[in-house]
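SEVERITY: medium
COMPONENT: batch folding queue
REPORTER: lab tech (J.R.)

DESCRIPTION
The queue accepted two submissions in a row. Attaching both inputs and their returned structure tokens so the on-call engineer can compare them side by side.

ATTACHMENT 1
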Amino acid sequence: MEYFEFDTSKFIYDILIPCLLACVFGGIIGLQRERHDRPAGLRTHTLVCLGATSFTIVSCLGFSSQTGFDPSRIAAGVVTGIGFIGAGAIFRQGSLVKGVTTAASIWVAASIGLALGTKMYYLAAATTILGFLALSTVKYIEEKFVRIPNYTINITTSENFTSYKEIKNFLEKVSTNVRYKKYNFDDEKNKMMLTVNVQSRDPEFSIKILQQLSKLKEIEKVTIS
């Protein structure tokens, strides 16, 4: 086993600077996740990036003098191991699978750490900026032009309610698609319950629905989710 003497210049440029940048770059990605209240946030991304940087430095410096050792083996191990952390951020909620984007951001944080460990600072900086933009602006573009928001409207009315056609016509005007309708009757309370699932790009969709339904006296309760 070879022992290394402490070299201030080598410590600063080969170890301290990459590790500090790992905390900064990983923190930038993590901050975006933290602001949106995701399962893995600032600390997780910072530690993942710092850990990947540290492993890479160990791979490049600690084993560089050994013959027959491939430094890329540790990097490959980091890529494989980070998948287990990412998998922990993914969970299922009903028919929806959430956390995939956060798992991908953890993977990106690890790649930034690998780049910093090999002192590819330009690549690390570019990946951080592009990753942050992808998490921030692409989501807005996706929601604005690609994904159509879903709304579930639950309406409670009296048993004598007869304005279903009026509700249906209004929903067809303000929404992109009326996906399904479900009717239930509560015998004990003599209440009729209507559940409608619709899609709409209108940012004021919920307000318009509430304003329109408030005009119908037979409606007792409306919830939109």
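ATTACHMENT 2
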Amino acid sequence: MNNGKIIILSGPSGAGKTTLYKRLLASRRLRDKLVKTTSVTTRPMRPGERNGRDYFFVSREMFLHKKAAGHFLESERVFGNYYGTPHKQVKDFLVSGKHVLLCIDVKGAKTVCRKFPRAVKIFIKTSSLAVLKERLRKRGSEARAAMDVRLETACRELKAAKGYDYTVVNDNLKKAVRRLEKIVCSEIQAKL
């Protein structure tokens, strides 16, 4: 049924998975080989984001309605907001032979892998918890209590890394992107 593969990037907040995800999608080597899905979320739109491009922003009620109707391949409540990956969008891409790049949390990755055991799981992390703390602090986007919750969650998520196919340390963006490109090219059998 599916000719394409699912490639999952996950890891704790502050590890840089979203930046790496965007770099892979824009990569000259991979841009015609990888596709992204547009997730659905209940979180507020951030400056520079557009509905339908970055996320589909919906109310909590609409999200829960879609979840009950089986609309999501995976969905999770993360730091008080809901996020979900549209199942039909992923399935349509795979059937057409496209490789789907997902940027999701550890719980979401487990759910996807139960449904698609061939999914390739790549864990993104920093070299240390101190580096992760500093990145979260520099964001300046959260109160101290919220940052503490993110750090507690990060500690739990770091333990999940051993269950992934690959781990990429993101302390040098260029090196991390090159490593990810090599992994993805190897997994989808594309030339660098």
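NOTES FROM REPORTER
The chain is about 40% helix and 20% strand.
No errors were logged for either attachment.
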